[in-house]
Design goal:
This protein is an alpha+beta fold. The protein folds into two domains: about 15-85; about 90-240, Immunoglobulin-like (Sandwich). The chain contains two helices and ten strands, in the order αββββββββαββ. The chain has a six-stranded antiparallel sheet with strand order 6-3-2-1-10-9, with helices on one face. A four-stranded antiparallel sheet has the order 5-4-7-8, with no helix packed on it. The longest helix has about 80 residues, at about 10-85. The radius of gyration is 43 Å and the shape is rod-shaped.
C-alpha cells in the first residue's frame, strides 16, 4: 500500500534555499565589515602621514625660529658693543699728518694737505679706532684710500677704505684690534683697488702711544673722578692728546 509523505517533512528545495539565504545573510555584513576595516586603516594611515608631515613642518619652523633668534641675539650684542664704543670718548686721540719726505720713501704730494684725527679706545680687552679724515681728494681710477693699523709685532692690519665726501671729509670706525699696548702706528695710504698689504704712498700717519690696558670698570672711575686733564705732546709722524704713553 502506498505511503504518502507527511506534510511536515521539508522538501529538498526548501533546505537548499534556506542555506543560500543564511550564507548571504552572513557574507554581506562580513564584506561590509572588511571594507570598513580597510577604509579605516587607510584613513588612519593618511592621518598618520599628515601628522608626520605637520610634525616635520613644525620642526623646520622651530629650527628656523631658533636660527632667527640666535641671529637677533647676535645683532643685539653687536649693537650694544657699537653703542658702547660710540659713547666711549676713548683713551687717547692722535692727529695724523703727512709724513716728512724721506730718502727712499714715497710721499703723496697731491694729498699733502690731507690730515686726520683718530680716537683710540678699548673694549673687552681689544682696541678700536674712530678715524676722521679731512682734505681728501678723490682717489685716481683703479685706486682706493686705505687705512692701516701697524702693531708692534706683525704686518699692518687693514682697517677699511676712506670714501671722501664732496667736501673732502671721510669717517671710518674699526674694532676688534690688538690691545692698546700693542699699537705702533696708524696710517692712511693710496693703494691699488682691493690691496691686501700697503705698498703705495702714505698720505698721513701718526705714531701710537703704548697705553696700559684698563678694566671695564675704569670708565666709571673716570666719571666719578672727573675727566682727566688733556695732555699734548709731539710724537713721530703726528701728535697725541689724552693718555700719555704707559697710561700715566
Amino acid at each position: 500500500m502506498a505511503q504518502s509523505l507527511s506534510p511536515e517533512s521539508p522538501s529538498f528545495s526548501r533546505l537548499t534555499s534556506g542555506r543560500r539565504s543564511s550564507s548571504w545573510t552572513i557574507a554581506v555584513p562580513t564584506t561590509f565589515l572588511a571594507v570598513a576595516v580597510v577604509v579605516l586603516m587607510a584613513w588612519l594611515a593618511a592621518r598618520a602621514s599628515s601628522r608626520q608631515t605637520q610634525l616635520e613642518t613644525l620642526q623646520r619652523d622651530l629650527a628656523a625660529s631658533q636660527q632667527t633668534l640666535a641671529a637677533a641675539q647676535k645683532q643685539v650684542v653687536t649693537a650694544q658693543a657699537e653703542l658702547e664704543i660710540a659713547r666711549d670718548p676713548g683713551r687717547t686721540t692722535v692727529v695724523m699728518q703727512a709724513p716728512a719726505p724721506a730718502k727712499g720713501k714715497s710721499v703723496a704730494r697731491p694729498e699733502a694737505a690731507a690730515w686726520g684725527a683718530a680716537v683710540w679706545g678699548e673694549s673687552q680687552g681689544k682696541s678700536w679706532h674712530r678715524i676722521s679724515a679731512y682734505g681728501l681728494q678723490t682717489a685716481p681710477p683703479g685706486h682706493q684710500i686705505h687705512v692701516w693699523f701697524e702693531p708692534i709685532k706683525g704686518p699692518p692690519l687693514p682697517l677699511g677704505k676712506l670714501e671722501p665726501a664732496p667736501n673732502g671729509t671721510a669717517l671710518l670706525e674699526a674694532k676688534d684690534l690688538p690691545g692698546v699696548d700693542q699699537g705702533k702706528r696708524l696710517f692712511v695710504s693710496l693703494e691699488a683697488r682691493n690691496a691686501k698689504a700697503p705698498a703705495g704712498p702714505v698720505l698721513f700717519e701718526a705714531s701710537l702711544p703704548k697705553l696700559v690696558p684698563q678694566t671695564r670698570a675704569a670708565p666709571d672711575a673716570k666719571a666719578s673722578g672727573g675727566p682727566p686733564a688733556a695732555q699734548q705732546g709731539n710724537v713721530p709722524g703726528g701728535s697725541q692728546m689724552g693718555d700719555t704713553p704707559g697710561g700715566k
